[in-house]
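Summary for the steering committee. One of the milestones for this cycle was to obtain a three-dimensional model of the protein with S-adenosylmethionine bound, which we needed before selecting residues for the alanine scan. The sequence and ligand used are listed below.
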Amino acid sequence: MTGTEHPAAVPPHLPNGPSPDQIMAVAGGYINARMLFTACDIELFAALDAAGATAAELAQRCGVPERSVRIVADVLATCGILELNGGRYRNAPPAEAFLSGRGPLDLGSLLRYWDIVSYQRAAAATMAVRTSQGVPCALDAGQVEAFQQWVAFATAQGAETLAAAYDFTDHRRVLDIGGGLGTMVLPPLIRFPHLTATLIDLPEVVGLARKRLAASPAAGRIDPVAADAFTDPLPAGHDCILVAHFMHLLPPERNVALLKRLRAVAAPDTVLLLVDWWRHWDGIPPAEAVYGAVEFLLISGGDTYTPEEAGQWLGATGWQATGWQPLAEPTSLLIARPRGSG
Ligand SMILES: C[S@@+](CC[C@H](N)C(=O)[O-])C[C@H]1O[C@@H](n2cnc3c(N)ncnc32)[C@H](O)[C@@H]1O
């Protein structure tokens, strides 16, 4: 046993053949994840201070029976997330840093999103793989917020790199399509104080964006607008259109439809910036992109696409790709202009 296997992973081994351990460890990972989410739900990590706690003390602090809290804590100790010495459980250093609510970064919202949204969809993964279609799932307000927080967490570093790597000096007005909480457009607005922006997203997201953007130093220069990028009129008059981490959510034909709509509101000097996890790697992509592709397929039939695929969609919709540059891995930037604009 390596410490992260499901305890049932002790199958008969072939005398001289390959071992099934790896397969069993992957299959058993579901229970480890489930117990981690349950521990977050009962606030087990917050309940463990430096002195640690016995199962009986934990039961009292978390408000669950002693027998069941011990079962959860033993799984987490087997995984190395908790430590168990002399009958007392303690947070291992990563749990104290990321799960207790007392550390520098709280992974709670990310794990909550995986638990209540991603893994619910993943139960229907075989159907999504057979059909290349997403798994419909109506999100309540809390789930929408959990998704947006997860996205903001995942895209923040790429956003900083975009502002540093791409020169917005010659642009005046940015149209941010599917802008979410504004994570991508804020760093350019802050670095280039002459810029203004319109952020388009669905109504349930724009309310959250307004709240978050109000606290930003660029608050007065960004206008969040509730609109569906496929069915509502899109505003003209922007010389830069930013589409960040949106195309990977869509199947190819929807991306073509989106690019056609954007071309219709583009001026001859408009530059289109497509920021995404464009699949350009030889061999196995970075883990974020590998698991991201699963997530994008499950959400709405998307994928991580290659720059060549995007180039074909651009070519078919009146754009031409004019450049590509890496940002923070796994993100990169495809630049396009209206065809014939010089
Ligand atoms: C993965 S998030 C990316 C957010 C942001 N661009 C970023 O990079 O941080 C995709 C966003 O597209 C929005 N979206 C999805 N379908 C949309 C539609 N039909 N019209 C406008 N926005 C949409 C989602 O609400 C979500 O905020």
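Key point for the committee: The chain has a mean pLDDT of 94.
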